[in-house]
# Entry
Amino acid sequence: MSRKTLSFTRSQQLFQEACQIIPGGVNSPVRAFKQVDAHPLFIKKAEGAYVWDVDGNRFVDYVGSWGPAILGHAHPEVVQAVGESLSHGFSFGAPCEQEITLTRKVQEILPSIEMLRLVSSGTEACMSALRVARGYTGREKIVKFTGCYHGHADMLLVKAGSGVATLGIPGSPGVPQGSTKDTITLAFNDSEALKALFVQQGRDIAGLIVEPIVGNGNFIRPKDGYLELMRELCTEYGTVLIFDEVMTGFRVGLKGVQGLKGIKPDMTTLGKVIGGGMPIGAYGGKAEIMNKVAPAGPVYQAGTLSGNPVAVTCGIKTLDLLQNKYAFTDLSRRTRELVLGLKERAARHGVALSVDSEGGMFGFMFCSELPTSFEAAAQANIDQFKRFFRGMLHHGVYLAPSAFEAGFVSFAHGDKEIAATLEAADHVFANLSQY
Ligand code: KE4
# Structure
């Protein structure tokens, strides 16, 4: 079977130019394709389930701008609503009615959120939620989990922990020891380590933040009872339980993981889908906690473009369509069909592949057992992942350019796109060594 290749000449020229004036040629590291040993694509257009690069190549897109494009890119009804909003001005720096509309919509979908603050990114949401947890409890220690990513605030950029709780060692130059010394990292899904930590230090822990399905470890599902244990321990020791649903919110199901599991976190962070592709993040939860946030309370947090009418209108229309026009059962079925199809084609060619999906979010790893921790996911065959990524790109399929990222199916992905993806996968699995 012949090896299929596309031309990426213009992308390579632009990347070379970009590298002169933009660090690493990109405005967010994962886009540089360093983790798949390839040159990045420069995208010119995105519509429905597809993106086109500057060389005119068309791809079935499973990145979806890292999650926001759940309706498909440039949904006509969203384009229309955003266009109308633009004609009334871009940003007021003042309250607008749309902020109330979006907040009410989020509350309707996620009843654990009694009050909400809009910001402009998931990083801002997570950073602010942890500050509020510290301000509310008067404590300083925070807990995160290996493989979970909550944005790039200093206190969260810590070296991945080992099997036991490790105190925060800066995970990046420029992060001072003082910012991470109170950040405790645990292995995800290790219930014994979690219990031991709370017995030892529970009364000192302000907040525990977790991706309730770890999309930044590819796709790692919580073991039965694990999130429930977190809820129990946080309640017992007065720690603020924060579900980081920036990725899983409105994605694994309309109501996120908290809706699937029936668990009520004290706070939730949101991003991606809530903005429909425009820059929005949000954090919210119990009124008793959120009333600590300035100007209602003493915990400071602010933002020039927070709640701007254009981005908020995009979010409102996106959530409105998710609530009223589209059924997550369809999206779940189609995503499951994709991953089971990938597994079947891999098996045809003797390739070990483990897959999982929930709603419109999926993961696949080159290993035979589904990993239950980031440490286990890191043992998967990364070389095979890189080859598969490059091969699929040459067959017109754009996957997340990292073995540690989840993939996303939109409501615009139909039978045609899934069939084309599985046909491409069959070819690539048969010729993996050639990519
Ligand atoms: P942003 O600051 O990138 O909007 O959100 C940070 C964030 C917080 N929490 C979770 C669970 C997240 O997944 C993210 C950001 N996700 C990454 C990819 N997994 C964004 C892509 C990128 O960094 O370029």
Summary: The first strand starts at residue 43 and ends at 47.
